[in-house]
Amino acid sequence: MIKKFLALVLFGVSFAAAAAPAAPVLGTDYVRLVERQPVDTGKKVEVIEFFAYYCPHCYAFAPDIEAWARKQGDNIVFKRVHIGSGPSVLPQQKLFFSLESMGLLEQYHLKVFDAMHAQLGALRDDAAVMDWAAKEGIDKKRFAETYSGLGVSGKLRHADRMMGDYRVDYWPMVIIDGKYMTSPAQVNKGAPAKTEEQMHANALSVMDFLVAKAKSEKQ
User: Fold this and answer.
1) What is the dihedral of CA 212, 52, 64, 184, to 10 degrees?
2) How far is residue 168's CA from residue 178's CA, in Å, rounded to a whole number?
């Protein structure tokens, strides 16, 4: 009887161990930045997503990371930075920062992704961006002034500096509180997923871990 009881206990322990998800591993699921970057979010954890509207992987990840950020709520301050990678990307980058400056980003962010990927070559120049904004009902004069204004120019320069400071060389990439980096691609190196949905879920799980870790380190 005792042997049977011990066998059941050991089986339960081994089953629980097998069922428990492995903790994210430094160097595999995430990396520590060589130089910690400053954050201005107080007790909340800063989360920055580097992305590009033209990027199909960013497009696929966008609704998942948005839902994740909403679920995190007051734990985090979620920021996005559209990367710069040459003249062909500049119109989309200026569109992003224009919408952000006008307080319209949350309303139109996913719509821009849809427009970019619905038609090859969409939003590739200033005229196409202006046409898109007009069709969406955005105030034409205000948008044009913002798009070509000093505020957006400053944001473009700041984004370029951030790419260098954070050593961003692919996207999407997520930075947690100025010191940890992860991404769907990073997490997938250690545990290759069978589907894109699973890869995103794995990445978001690592992000949960890093937010909790960063928050505890603020204490």
Assistant:
1) -60
2) 13
98 with 108: CB under 8 angstroms?
Answer: no
Q: Beta 76-82 vs 45-51: how paired, if at all?
A: parallel
Q: What is the dihedral of CA 61, 66, 69, 74, to 10 degrees?
A: 170
What are the domain boundaries of the chain?
Answer: 29-217
Would the pLDDT of 111 be above 60? yes
Give the fold, CATH level 3, of 29-217. Answer: Glutaredoxin (3.40.30)
**Is residue 111 classed as helix, strand or coil in its secondary structure?**
helix
Compute the distance between CA of residue 141 and CA of residue 204 in angstroms, rounded to an integer: 39
pLDDT at 17 over 80: no
Amino acid identity for residue 83 in this structure: I
Q: How far apart are the C-alpha atoms of 157 and 33, rounded to whole Å?
A: 22
Classify residue 182 as left (phi > 0), alpha (psi -120 to 50) or beta.
beta
Give the DSSP letter of residue 38.
Answer: P
Give pTM, 2 decimals: 0.89
Q: Which helix (H) or strand (E) holds 51?
A: strand 45-51
- Per-residue pLDDT band for 21 (boundaries 50, 70, 90) equals low
Report the pLDDT value the prediction gives residue 131, as an integer from 0 to 100: 97
Q: How far apart are CA 145 and CA 151, in angstroms?
A: 10
Average pLDDT over residues 56-61: 98
